[in-house]
Amino acid sequence: MYYHDKRLQYPVKVESPDPVYARMLQQAIGGIEGEIRVAFQYFFQAWGNRAPTTKYRDMLLHTATEEIGHIEMLATAVAMNLENAPTKVQEAGAADAIVGAVMGGENPRHMVEGMLHRHLLSTGMAAFPANCDGVPFDMSHIYASGNIAADMYCNVAAESTGRVLATRLYNATNDPGMRDMWSFLIARDTMHQQQWLAVIEELGGDAGTLPIPNSFPQEKENQKFNYNFFATAADGSPPPAGRWTEGAAMDGKGQFSVVQNQPMGEEPVLGPARPDSGAETQQIG
Amino acid sequence: MYYHDKRLQYPVKVESPDPVYARMLQQAIGGIEGEIRVAFQYFFQAWGNRAPTTKYRDMLLHTATEEIGHIEMLATAVAMNLENAPTKVQEAGAADAIVGAVMGGENPRHMVEGMLHRHLLSTGMAAFPANCDGVPFDMSHIYASGNIAADMYCNVAAESTGRVLATRLYNATNDPGMRDMWSFLIARDTMHQQQWLAVIEELGGDAGTLPIPNSFPQEKENQKFNYNFFATAADGSPPPAGRWTEGAAMDGKGQFSVVQNQPMGEEPVLGPARPDSGAETQQIG
Amino acid sequence: MYYHDKRLQYPVKVESPDPVYARMLQQAIGGIEGEIRVAFQYFFQAWGNRAPTTKYRDMLLHTATEEIGHIEMLATAVAMNLENAPTKVQEAGAADAIVGAVMGGENPRHMVEGMLHRHLLSTGMAAFPANCDGVPFDMSHIYASGNIAADMYCNVAAESTGRVLATRLYNATNDPGMRDMWSFLIARDTMHQQQWLAVIEELGGDAGTLPIPNSFPQEKENQKFNYNFFATAADGSPPPAGRWTEGAAMDGKGQFSVVQNQPMGEEPVLGPARPDSGAETQQIG
Amino acid sequence: MYYHDKRLQYPVKVESPDPVYARMLQQAIGGIEGEIRVAFQYFFQAWGNRAPTTKYRDMLLHTATEEIGHIEMLATAVAMNLENAPTKVQEAGAADAIVGAVMGGENPRHMVEGMLHRHLLSTGMAAFPANCDGVPFDMSHIYASGNIAADMYCNVAAESTGRVLATRLYNATNDPGMRDMWSFLIARDTMHQQQWLAVIEELGGDAGTLPIPNSFPQEKENQKFNYNFFATAADGSPPPAGRWTEGAAMDGKGQFSVVQNQPMGEEPVLGPARPDSGAETQQIG
Amino acid sequence: MYYHDKRLQYPVKVESPDPVYARMLQQAIGGIEGEIRVAFQYFFQAWGNRAPTTKYRDMLLHTATEEIGHIEMLATAVAMNLENAPTKVQEAGAADAIVGAVMGGENPRHMVEGMLHRHLLSTGMAAFPANCDGVPFDMSHIYASGNIAADMYCNVAAESTGRVLATRLYNATNDPGMRDMWSFLIARDTMHQQQWLAVIEELGGDAGTLPIPNSFPQEKENQKFNYNFFATAADGSPPPAGRWTEGAAMDGKGQFSVVQNQPMGEEPVLGPARPDSGAETQQIG
Amino acid sequence: MYYHDKRLQYPVKVESPDPVYARMLQQAIGGIEGEIRVAFQYFFQAWGNRAPTTKYRDMLLHTATEEIGHIEMLATAVAMNLENAPTKVQEAGAADAIVGAVMGGENPRHMVEGMLHRHLLSTGMAAFPANCDGVPFDMSHIYASGNIAADMYCNVAAESTGRVLATRLYNATNDPGMRDMWSFLIARDTMHQQQWLAVIEELGGDAGTLPIPNSFPQEKENQKFNYNFFATAADGSPPPAGRWTEGAAMDGKGQFSVVQNQPMGEEPVLGPARPDSGAETQQIG
Q: What is this model's ipTM?
């Protein structure tokens, strides 16, 4: 179960509120690279963890709980960037508005546009659980497969795309408060990338975990095709050479090679449509 | 651009058509662990690839193109498992039907239920791009971040959850044709897991790629908190020890340690609602 | 604006309530082939209709309004099929339940399963605006393009897939009341297919409407490639001959022919990633 | 069944067409606070209504039918605000365009941006059933639970968020026609808020309806915890006092009190993964 | 920020694991009536709360934090109901399986079907954030409008549909452990319904809060139509009388009456399509 | 199975990169009128095709394969339009930025806004499979009904809305490279419209295919109502006359006529709620 402290994990300050930036921040809340995703991914991995030990469940709960605090920080940052954003439009027409903006140094409509309206219309100047395009976060992005190695790679993927996004948001602002907040959140992403890779290492690294799942006997897979790069160039030109085209495979259990892809199957012929299946009579034959 | 051969990459045979299994196969077509996802993930990573070399673009195109053929194999397998599935219901009531099924050895309604109706109602006994619950695949699951290392981990995650699913589907059937098809597809997943990890190794492994993105100067991140495991147990009890709680970090650029999480920020106080923002008067104050 | 009559457009009777059939009926309410879709497609086409005449707007309103009554009929049919469906489970375990069902002629859990739970859990034994898999209807399926010919073909598509579904649902029941309801709704689909094609004919048929939009000067399109079937077989084998491979095009403005697809462009080379774009340093070059 | 009149329920006039405002109006059509939602929520509540009387079914049909006319008014308002919006771009580059706009008093691209493209690209200058971010309305927002009191509160929620949105849209325009339309629609929301609360009062108010559902015997709920505010502050600091922390509960069936949340359960220990479940061998133990 | 205790808020025990019931429980996790929804609805209302006092923010945080623990309890209950569920299918065909089930008292395929596959295929026998149809929860259901009275009604709606669902799930099981868990969760829903209504009372009840938002001057709404029930029966027959057709309105600011709906507007005439707008030439006129 | 050539089907050149136009192009990639949709619609129609001949399967594969190359061209065009788009913001505040833009001829923030952020934040300046509002493509738009005539009309609908979109995108740019690309893609849409109508003609045209499905015996549909236009005007005023109100129906199997819609059914009366169904006691009666 869970507890809260009404203070934030790390300070959130905004010197110059910027409604356009508020909108950009939404990507880090409700984007697929964002904090709702990692919080719930770690929670569901913890709550469903099956293993001889509760160690991984426990570890995941620590980090999932931390991430709730990150959503909170970002939601606070969005609201602060919307302070003083306009709720009213004085001007009658768009063309006038933009001229007025340049002449008079203010342009409420332009700022409303910058917000893309939703913060004005739906939330009363606060964050909502959607990305910067307003697409609501959907929970199909919570990856929890029941296989701990697969889940760790899902987590590395989430924290890697997450830190990429965070650095882009750092670069997209000059506000000192926002940059300080990001310097903290980017640091946490650094740690979390390492953390999930450390689990892989603890499980034995490539040799100990691959191929995932390692509990499926490899003799049941088709061993003619499990370490080949299939080339699909229509003219048969070879693919670029790389670590994946020759040498020992990463798991030490095979040798990489290149194979030109060729059909091994036949053209499939399905039965004709049956009389009462809603097809055209021409399909029933 | 692209070409086709009307034959399949690998033979698809079904000895005993099973409409329930057809439904399960949908997960491998339109589930988040499925083949549409990897095909388009690799295509979009290829088409947007920015690097001094086209090598990675090229490699991704080979594998993306192969994956289209996997969707085709699975769609064929679904249609074949639906051969002879019922399109009509002779019985008037559900209770009768189930009794009849046991008595007479046939139960059209039960099989219709097994299919969960959609293959009957929407496709005329063919596959559709949705998972085994009928939830359509949505393209937000195509991860292509513009950072090649992040993308490779997204790909490892996709192929790992994909192979986990494939082995579950192997175990869920006794049909020799289906098991042969899976032995091939599972082998391909083995290769693809290795392939994306091989790119990481070629890029320099942990030290060469972490933290992702490695182009953001680490001195801009808060270096007090970038290699710490934050513990959130309310009673301050320590987290379980692991590779991630002490020793050198995976990238060799820091030392893991444990920190008890404490609020560093304050309770956030947002401004009151403004008069014309659609709030209650009690909020305006 | 709109009015209602609390009576139904056509009688809805159910002799033998069947919760499994209730679930199947959902496809005709909230499926992409269903009645919510056509009602709102015609409404939005009407409300946005731009033409020198209000004739089409008016016609569309008549039919859209009729369709609301069809949703109502189907929602009523779902509720009636759920009369007497179980709300409680007396048995402790699934294995017992199914044995009991066969022995005693009743099987509440089996019927609960047949309903797939949602009618029990979410609606209190009534219809909801989702398909037979429980996927909610989403309004991106309302096609209204601003081009009347395109819209008419969208409508033919909707009524064709709709009538296909309706005949499948007719075949899936033996209940006389349900079959009578479907005999009416199938008849209406027959009319509506004709109706939208009649608009095409009134607009001048193929010659008068194609290519859609016919207001774009055809000399602006690349006239080397506007009536060719492009063949993509990797081995250059010719495509099957058909009405579309030779002879006059449907609009009488060109001649069909076959062309083997070949790349006319080059391999695209995008610029390398820029330093502050969140890429790996290896991509920046 | 349903009828239409091709005239609008209330006049819709636009003095100064404004494509940015057209986009904002979309929120009132296809947003979760919008008119499609209330129309269909009331329809599905009516069509599935189970009660000894058809009174509530009947009442709901009156209001649902009215709401279709509101969608129509708003769709008309969107189209009128798009009159004369640009369909073409004369300028080559964005920087030039904005300068040109200020200099010459026109800025087609800026206006295109204001529309966020969709009204231009997808609808031919007309409304579509999506919110102001272009997210299509999805019918999971149609709340119809089979419990009339729960449904009435869902309706109050819908009309409250709806009127909040409507007043924000009123404030966001100075167009007299648009403000007149909103003065009508805001008035209707006022009525509808009252209407659903009036049903609650008719059902007996708090004492007659709470806790919802009131048909579940309260002795089956855990009576130690049904009127307590659970405090979750990690340091045990008390929550703020309010109407909900002491005194008689709203339904008169209990007394409010405050309880500090403490775990009453244990750490859950799930079984280890089974050998053929697709887990890593390390999880099988 | 947040803390956790690895123990559960309340004990979760399952005597007879039942994979069908596991699937039903998903509705309480990821359904629109479920716990993810309330947790995040309260969090976003708290994080965006604007008022002269932080009292409501604080209260909301207590309850949101409690709800995370409820998701955890339900996720645990799902996993426990999946203990011993089959991961393998021994039988070749469906018809055989059901006969075997009755004869031998076991029916793995039937149970697999009961689970509808997803718990087997995607999670390794654990919960996932979707409803009982497998539709992922999407965050557009997090209602936080910036108006505290509207939000409180959204919360009453959520807790009312939530308790309705909870009592249905209580009735759908005989497992003593599950019923004990539900007796607790149902009690908490009782409290939370009261809690949000208590806020409304503290704000002044109907008179103090209606119409929502109460900060919009009522003289700006069309006062001819703000307390009328609009009747839409095509034949002009009167609507049923009720609390909402006569007498003082709930807010004491108007009198209810009935008005027969009549068009006050005209048939809308949009301009014809413009030449370069992608319409048919027939629309351009 | 499939092959690729790393060159493009047709050249893609951009003279003046324009990030706003990049965003608009997304509609042709991931919009419902776009290329992902047609590619996969044709693939799923091919893979599930049931007929006495493989001719249609084969033809569909040719065109589906071509369409993958169109997605590739558009993804390339998006990336090229994002070359040199800003990744950084130098200015502190929005008001300053717009003034600076006009004064100095550059306006990074404005351009960032034009992109609506996602290309910057999520993709590193590349395309993604979503429409111009950032709504991800969802595969429920892949129409493949198992009825070849219905599918052909779905394809005509897709290519018609697709070509309408393409001409709007042609009009929205002055870039010679972009216009040349569109002249090619518009030509292909011309062909594909004809191609699917040619299949209808080959199947026998209206008489040979209507009503769809033509395999359902028309004597089973209610023959009183299968060629009538139902008029729903509340005052009984007649609908506008057109090809669909009199004369022979399109299929030659009936005569069009007009019927004033009247209720033929009764007010539906559902049973009251049952005691344990989660209703209010007032509904149980």
A: 0.92
